[in-house]
Here is the input.
Amino acid sequence: MSLPHPTTDQISLPIVLAVLGDPTRLAIVRYLASKEGVPLNCSKFLDLASKTNLSYHLAKLREAGVTRSEAAGTSRLITLRRDDLDKRFPGLLDSVIAAAGEDKALPMVGTAETEIDA
Amino acid sequence: MSLPHPTTDQISLPIVLAVLGDPTRLAIVRYLASKEGVPLNCSKFLDLASKTNLSYHLAKLREAGVTRSEAAGTSRLITLRRDDLDKRFPGLLDSVIAAAGEDKALPMVGTAETEIDA
DNA sequence: CCAATTGTTCAATAACTCTTGAACTAAGGA
DNA sequence: TCCTTAGTTCAAGAGTTATTGAACAATTGG
Here is the structure.
């Protein structure tokens, strides 16, 4: 159970862009950004994908250096690596998140029926 | 020979990100940005990929709404759709291009041996 | 008209991506 | 200890992407 994260200077632009180019992962990042500072566990994203599939997407985000995952008991706490991303690619994350706000037709985490218990 | 381009509001964020997530295409966009305003023909990018492969990547960029291609005699003039991208996703293109400048390890158009005749 | 130039289309292929269900691990609580 | 909860790993399949070479169009210049 290693959970390897790239160092800040190992973060690669094409990999970050490709990883953010998936609607499910974009929705995850968007939600993380909206709850900035609050570590979330995977179950928060279960309306985006199945448990198995989430594990896959969260691993992609982690391996790209977009998120950090830390073990906490039986949970995993996920956070955005905002500081590292801002250091490496200033302004990129903000403009992607702002752009995601412009793009209707993107999946969201707590929409409609599930928003009540958020 | 239609050469369809999406309208500004048809441009999709995940598709743009996925398209820019390829090192060859990122290099194309970077070069276009460095020659902003000057329409370039495909041959400018021949050190990035084969003729066939370039056609493929340029079609991807066009279909995503990142570039515009116009027929001009036997050539095709390629331009960045900066205005449209800035309108749809303000700041995104600039931060991606700036980020590309930070990322050593990206392919470039006129590097080293080919730069003499640029 | 003929040939060269510029780029596209097609078919094929290798490689990768996303998604799934079943089986598994690890920690926490009754 | 046993069960539940949280998440991972594995194997498999469907689909997509990148790359190539051969063949094709279209325009331009001689």
Observations:
- The CA atoms of residues 82 and 93 of chain A lie 8 Å apart.
- DSSP finds five helices and three strands in chain A.
